Automatic annotation (TrEMBL):
UniProt xrefs under NCBIfam families: manA (TIGR00218)
Cofactor(s) recorded in Swiss-Prot or TrEMBL: Zn(2+)
Protein name, per record: mannose-6-phosphate isomerase
Residues spanning the signal sequence: none
Domain (Phosphomannose isomerase type I catalytic) ranges: 3-141
Originating species: Microbacterium limosum
Cofactor note: Binds 1 zinc ion per subunit.
Amino acid sequence: MLVPLSNTPRAYAWGSTDAIAALEGREPSGAPEAEVWFGDHAGDPAELEDGSTLDAWIAAHGAEHGVDGPLPYLLKLLAAGSPLSIQAHPSLEQARRGFAREEATGIPRDAAHRNYRDANHKPEVIVALSDTFEALAGFRSVADLDSLLSSLAGAAPEIASLRSRLLTGDPASTLREAVRDLLSGDASELAAEVSRAVAETDGGPFADDVAALARLEQAYPGDPGVGVALLLNRVVLSRGEAIFVPAGVPHAYLSGLGVELMAASDNVLRGGLTPKHIDVPELVEILDASPAPAPLLVAQARAAGVDVFEAPVSDFSLTRVRATAGADARIALAGPAIALATAGAPRVGGAATGTEHARTLAPGRALFVTPDEGSVLVGGAGEVFLAQPGALIGS
């Protein structure tokens, strides 16, 4: 079964005013357009042509087409016109424990101070659609932090002290303590030194990183999250490149348009660059503070024009198909899938229903494909991202 999907962009303040409109080939609305959700998540389920929603369709018809309950993933278009908050997501065990605790204490699920709105984890992949996509992801390596902090230290004793602790103590413990202190106000002088340093130094070999921090300081003056951002890898993706963010890894998307695929969850622990609630002890508890390179996810070529972004989770797998006329691609289904067009005019169908029922998709339009189709067929000319459960689902 093929079910056409669309949705209305969500008007978060950080959204771009033109990126999603340009992808869809329409005039901008004038409002920020941050995300378009393609899934059955209750927060904003995708819409069908008759005005109903995907969650309702799955509840009514899913079982007869091999769809066993809600989707384990949520597919999005994400367009950042200004920086998102620094955040991290819990592991599955942490989410279950935290959700049960907050349910037992009676915190309303829509309360601003609630951390766990469901009992699921939220690993995620984002693939750049814009020419560049700028993000922060994971703590920098010790060597990188040593060089960066050295370039900023000068006469700044707190920055020099942090560098010394990183070099002589356990780096993960030091970074976790630095985040805790910055966000709780116990490192107010360090935060002030970071703000002064990004305003007064060019950063030397880290000039682009310091310029990015200066933009964050301008967007969020006095926010201690700028000090947290100093500790994180800055990564600039080119179109088609991706990062994978597992549990506990702090990250923030700063600018650009991308396709995002995540486990179906709304659990967020924030770490700065936001006026929203920050639960510092809970964030520090779930934080993965291990220094490491940026978590890039390299696509694996499976066939001509077919690349798979295979994250090490069972919730989802993301395949990119770049179709050319006369060279159809076939992708086997591991479960219910959503095909989202991002360029050109690709034609998407299912093996069971045949090519006569295939749909030509404009960029920003999607199809829900049920498992009983067996495989997805992509032809025409254009680009499609196919979301479906990961290879380990049910294991």
